[in-house]
Amino acid sequence: MQKEKKILLSGVKPTNRIHIGNYFGAMKQFVDLQGEYDNYIFIADYHALNQIKNPDELRDHTHNLILDYLAIGLDPKRTVLFKQSDAPQVCELQWIFNCLLPMPYLERAHAYKDAVAKRKEVNMGLFCYPVLMAADILMYDADLVPVGEDQKQHLEMAKDLAGKFNKAFSPIFKEPKAYIMQETSILGTDGEKMSKSKNNTIGLFEDEETLKKKIMSIKTDSKGVEDKKHSEEDNVFAFHKLFSQPMLDELRDRYEHGGIGYKESKEILLKNILAYTAPFRAKRAELEKDKDYVLGVLEEGAKIAGAKADAKMEKVKEAIGVN
Ligand code: TRP
Q1: pTM of the model
Q2: Whole-angstrom distance, CA of residue 52 vs CA of residue 14
Q3: How close is the Cα of 277 to the center of ligand 1, in Å?
Q4: pLDDT tens string 10-43
Q5: Does position 293 have pLDDT exceeding 60, yes or no?
Q6: Which candidate, 48, 121, 234, 249, has a CA 20 to 30 Å from the CA of 307?
Q7: Atom 6, ligand 1: which residue's CA is nearest?
Q8: Atom of ligand 1 at shortest distance to CA of 146?
Q9: CA distances from 300 to 60, 251, 290, 293 (A)
């Protein structure tokens, strides 16, 4: 008999166009681990509602994200691709989890504390964000959840919740493992952590002109062409590590011994990023023309995810006594 594969699950909020921090930090792993795991990858549109209150914008981001998922190589035959809102059972599960969580526990969440510190308005969606995320993860019995470093606490909370529910009722939830990649601390054009809020991102599907501008604006020191440079301390070189693999040693050599200026280094980087992303761009352009196919992928994903969620909710309802 074939051994059952472990389940990998992750989601991305459709709030912005994806940048290379998102890609190397989490999404590339979704693709690389296809086949090895049973993949469930979704569009976290209910989570996005926290930030986006404009229906056209939400639809637009959702459409872009499914195209991006498919363009980077997620294969619907090996990955269940779905919209979170197409399996709304997670909201039901979230309610049940809410009833297990003391408020002070959620008051320790980084995102909540941060919002309070910045005197932002905190709605219940923000406050309960980690609970909905726990429901996403536990609903589908995820073993492995590849996420960026910033999601670590949310993963811990999901693990806690599985334990709390299992102890209070019956042991039906699996405790998931986080899978945090080293490359998640990808720096932006200013040398700070790449983040939309810092305006230092490089989009994975950036048009060539913008890409060029952004790369040329990467902060460096002021060493001249012949000066010896520390490759490990240079922001441009940090990007080479992601995009310039076959020629990386040669580049490092030219940095360490002198003989390459930052301008040339950036020009090489631009070429390499374009080459690296060319297949993604081509695939995306093709998909843009085939709306029916894309909608079909989401429909199929909704069916599979919905059936799995129904089966899980039956067990949950039995455990808590509402069936
Ligand atoms: N909170 C995640 C983010 O902002 C998105 C997300 C929602 C998610 N639900 C999830 C990630 C479940 C992994 C698993 O990136």
Answers
A1: 0.93
A2: 9
A3: 24
A4: 999 999 999 998 898 889 999 999 999 999 999 9
A5: yes
A6: 48
A7: 11
A8: 13
A9: 20, 46, 16, 11
